[in-house]
């Protein structure tokens, strides 16, 4: 009796189905259905599948029970309702309609149970955040093909429509744009388009200063979702130092005299500054 019981327990532990992959997108666009998939497997000779259940939070929204009629049932169709479900002994897919509440986090659980002798149950949960993520990297405009040291310029970084709207940060040679505390949230946000989505932009006023012949600029757009969704664009600004531009202007190899002249003029200009 005891031996049988121990053997029975052993069998139960080994013969549960395993969830091999739970596919729940991190972000779900409320204007499209989200497709969720639960993959499972069992070992040869294991008891058959009893049921697969999907939960949103703690509420069951879908059930597949191959031994019953009907085989599939949907529940609680009001919030994150299931529109379609298609399951077999390896995979169970459902499509859900998401609420239009941006940044809302929904958790989805797939629960697989195995037939007799014991209804062994395995489950896995993943979260989905309702958001329309940026489809493209931000666009940086206003970068001239080259600039002079000390030149002032204004660049603009814009994102496409998204929700929630992105916060934009500029980085110059890897360092965040110098901002005063009241400037940190300097991202401007457009009005909502027909789908309720908003674009962001932020301009950067810059006086060119570098010891090298280029500046590395980076615009980073971050949607405050969980986890944050980040897209960024790099741009390189070529900086022509005065002697380099004279070299190019002459179009010939410089003579020693020219170099001397340049050195002199540089010294003078540095002294003048
Ligand atoms: C299920 O998981 C157990 C323990 O992780 C493993 O021993 C078994 O081989 C797995 N079975 C399948 C079909 O993946
Ligand atoms: C449906 O959702 C309600 C709350 O939203 C919950 O009380 C109820 O138990 C759910 N039904 C099922 C079958 O999970
Ligand atoms: C899902 O979100 C909840 C809070 O809403 C959190 O406690 C949990 O750790 C998250 N799970 C994963 C897998 O990120
Ligand atoms: C930056 O781009 C946005 C969107 O194209 C535009 O509305 C805004 O006026 C621009 N700002 C500057 C300072 O050019
Ligand atoms: C901007 O402000 C919003 C709320 O007003 C905040 O959630 C966000 O983190 C801020 N962004 C930055 C970059 O400080
Ligand atoms: C942009 O620059 C950063 C470092 O400043 C680098 O990590 C990243 O890979 C670059 N991205 C592209 C697309 O070149």
From TrEMBL:
<protein>
    <recommendedName>
        <fullName>Ig-like domain-containing protein</fullName>
    </recommendedName>
</protein>
<dbReference type="InterPro" id="IPR007110">
    <property type="entry name" value="Ig-like_dom"/>
</dbReference>
<dbReference type="InterPro" id="IPR013783">
    <property type="entry name" value="Ig-like_fold"/>
</dbReference>
<feature type="domain" description="Ig-like">
    <location>
        <begin position="28"/>
        <end position="129"/>
    </location>
</feature>
<keyword id="KW-0732">Signal</keyword>
<feature type="signal peptide">
    <location>
        <begin position="1"/>
        <end position="16"/>
    </location>
</feature>
<feature type="domain" description="Ig-like">
    <location>
        <begin position="138"/>
        <end position="236"/>
    </location>
</feature>
<dbReference type="InterPro" id="IPR036179">
    <property type="entry name" value="Ig-like_dom_sf"/>
</dbReference>
């Amino acid at each position: 009796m005891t031996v049988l019981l121990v053997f029975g327990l052993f069998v139960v532990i080994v013969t549960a189905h395993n969830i091999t992959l739970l596919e729940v997108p991190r972000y779900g666009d409320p204007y499209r259905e989200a497709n969720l998939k639960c993959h499972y497997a069992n070992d040869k000779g294991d008891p058959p599948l009893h049921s697969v259940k999907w939960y949103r939070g703690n509420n069951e929204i879908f059930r597949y029970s191959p031994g019953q009629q009907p085989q599939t049932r949907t529940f609680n169709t009001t919030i994150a309702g299931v529109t379609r479900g298609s399951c077999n002994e390896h995979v169970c897919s459902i499509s859900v309609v998401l609420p239009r509440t941006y940044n809302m986090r929904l958790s989805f659980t797939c629960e697989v149970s195995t037939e007799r002798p014991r209804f062994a149950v395995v489950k896995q949960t993943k979260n989905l955040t309702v958001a329309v993520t940026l489809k493209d990297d931000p666009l940086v405009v206003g970068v001239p093909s080259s600039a002079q040291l000390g030149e002032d310029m204004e660049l603009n970084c814009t994102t496409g429509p998204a929700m929630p709207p992105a916060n934009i940060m500029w980085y110059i040679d890897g360092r965040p744009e110098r901002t005063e505390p009241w400037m940190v949230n300097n991202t401007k946000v457009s009005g909502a388009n027909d789908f309720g989505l908003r674009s962001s932009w932020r301009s950067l006023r810059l006086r060119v200063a570098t010891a090298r012949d280029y500046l590395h600029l980076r615009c980073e757009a971050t949607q405050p979702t969980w986890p944050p969704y980040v897209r960024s664009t790099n741009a390189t600004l070529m900086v022509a130092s005065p002697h380099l531009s004279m070299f190019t202007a002459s179009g010939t190899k410089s003579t020693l005299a020219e170099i001397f002249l340049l050195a002199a003029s540089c010294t003078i200009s540095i002294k003048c500054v």
